[in-house]
Write a structure and sequence with these properties.
Layout lengths: L6 E2 L3 H24 L17 E12 L5 E14 L3 E10 L6 E15 L2 E16 L2 E19 L2 E12 L5 E12 L1
Antiparallel strand pairs: 1-7, 2-3, 2-9, 3-4, 4-5, 5-6, 6-7, 7-8, 8-9
């Protein structure tokens, strides 16, 4: 936690409730967008084409380097593919740790996909993140860069899952963390 950015006197309940409310609203909106068929969508679409957008949901764990704290929680990300086979843009949110020691983070990753086989894809990315952590009534903010390696597996056309290890470094303090997220992939 960065003591230079810490502020006291804010209510955990207010911040936590607001963040959970925003996360639920975002998750609901993303699920509706994924479930709603795109206008002009035809049934003769090539099954090998990547979806225009995807939703990734799963448990996440992060450990600070040098024997620091370990936090676990839920991660949700929404991904669009503006340039097929070349660029994916992922916006992700996560809530890690227990209520009294929770970290909320948002990130934006620019990723390059590589097809390893018809059922396996490797995606490598880099992007900025911002996080807000609390320890009781003390809050700290941080920002930095995060590198991700996303491996996606397809067992059937309609069932996909992923493993995403990540490494991040805070800009102000140089704190580093390793993380991993595993979950399901939903797409149009």
């Amino acid at each position: 936690m960065n003591p230079y950015l810490a502020t006291a006197g804010r209510s955990n309940t207010t911040i936590g409730s607001a963040a959970i409310g925003w996360a639920r609203s975002g998750a609901l909106a993303a699920m509706l967008l994924v479930a709603w068929p795109a206008s002009g969508e035809t049934s003769d679409q090539d099954p090998d084409d990547e979806p225009a957008y995807e939703l990734e949901v799963g448990p996440s764990t992060e450990r600070e380097a040098g024997g620091g704290a370990t936090r676990s929680g839920l991660a949700l990300s929404f991904e669009v593919t503006p340039v097929e086979h070349w660029l994916e843009i992922e916006f992700g949110v996560s809530a890690l740790g227990p209520v009294r020691d929770r970290e909320y983070a948002v990130g934006l990753a620019f990723k390059k996909p590589f097809t390893l086989s018809p059922t396996t894809e490797l995606v490598v990315g880099l992007g900025p993140y911002a996080a807000r952590a609390n320890a009781g009534s003390i809050y700290s903010n941080s920002h930095g860069m995060e590198a991700v390696v996303d491996v996606r597996f397809s067992t059937r056309h309609d069932f996909r899952w992923f493993v995403e290890p990540s490494w991040s470094r805070a800009a102000a303090t140089g704190d580093r963390a390793l993380g991993i997220t595993v979950g399901l992939v939903f797409g149009n």
